[in-house]
Amino acid sequence: MNEFKQVLTIAGSDSDGSAGAQADLKTFMSRGVYGMSVLTAAVAGNSYGIHDSVNLPIDFIKNEIKDIKDDFKISAFKNGMLSDSKIIHTIAEEIKDKPFGTFILDPVIITKHGAMLLETEAYQTLINELFPFADLITPNFYEAKKLSGMELNNKEDFAKAALELRKLGPKNIMIKGKHMDGSQDTVDDYVLLESGKSFWISEPFIDTEHINGTGDTLSSCIVAEIAKGKSMENAIKISKNYTYNAIKNEIAVGHKYGPINHFVDSTISTDLQS
């Protein structure tokens, strides 16, 4: 009983299915684990943009978490958008006894275009209360710049920034490279592991507007692979490859900024050994 690999996302609901908990759940299913969700907010949007949003009541969020704790065996989990300090504090309080295994923290602070998503108070609460619990953080280029207080102009800067981010508490760091500049040939991510080992992962740059949910997909794939017993290093590598293929193999959904393809072959890279 209860032995099938189970994972969790604590995130918002994205009505068009391209990001948020919907993207996480699609990724979990594609990677062969049973996904559950604790919803923190609901967003009304489509491929043209986000048009409305609402936070769920704190007591309801607590009850969602309680019901997951009371019944299921979660091996790994992640967060998505946590929109204010009260929600962030609530999540921190609920996970402090580590009920859900390995924690992959997607900061969701700044968009891939560089726009700030969190107000100052919520930003500080996220750093102070959730970063110390994280087994891995996956900031994008702009988030890594803000969190480290550094410019990221070359590979040496990425390495220095990762060391600064480690001071905030997380065990492992993955800084996602810029991928909105059509002049570049590759997207290059830097990883610093708890052991001190570091490496780069590169995939060809794909010029497409179908990139909604890439960060959600990457972090949720890592969660799935960790739950299946992969090492942190191989979970990251598998997830980078899966996300790349989900971008590369486009699906025609929506009129403008579309989702990536979670239906891409789920066996990709599963031959990597832990």
From TrEMBL:
Transmembrane region(s): none
Listed pathway(s): Cofactor biosynthesis; thiamine diphosphate biosynthesis; 4-amino-2-methyl-5-diphosphomethylpyrimidine from 5-amino-1-(5-phospho-D-ribosyl)imidazole: step 3/3; Cofactor biosynthesis; thiamine diphosphate biosynthesis; 4-amino-2-methyl-5-diphosphomethylpyrimidine from 5-amino-1-(5-phospho-D-ribosyl)imidazole: step 2/3
EC number of this enzyme: 2.7.1.49, 2.7.4.7
Enzyme class: transferase
GO cellular component: cytosol
Gene3D superfamilies, per the entry: 3.40.1190.20
Top-rank taxon: Bacteria
Residue span, Pyridoxamine kinase/Phosphomethylpyrimidine kinase domain: 14-261
Pfam families, sorted: Phos_pyr_kin (PF08543)
GO MF annotation, one: ATP binding
Keywords per UniProt: ATP-binding, Kinase, Nucleotide-binding, Thiamine biosynthesis, Transferase
Reaction it catalyzes: 4-amino-2-methyl-5-(phosphooxymethyl)pyrimidine + ATP = 4-amino-2-methyl-5-(diphosphooxymethyl)pyrimidine + ADP; 4-amino-5-hydroxymethyl-2-methylpyrimidine + ATP = 4-amino-2-methyl-5-(phosphooxymethyl)pyrimidine + ADP + H(+)
A single BP term in Gene Ontology: thiamine biosynthetic process
PANTHER family given in the database record: HYDROXYMETHYLPYRIMIDINE_PHOSPHOMETHYLPYRIMIDINE KINASE THI20-RELATED (PTHR20858:SF17), PHOSPHOMETHYLPYRIMIDINE KINASE (PTHR20858)
Family: Belongs to the ThiD family.
Protein's name according to its UniProt entry: Hydroxymethylpyrimidine/phosphomethylpyrimidine kinase
Protein source organism: Companilactobacillus futsaii
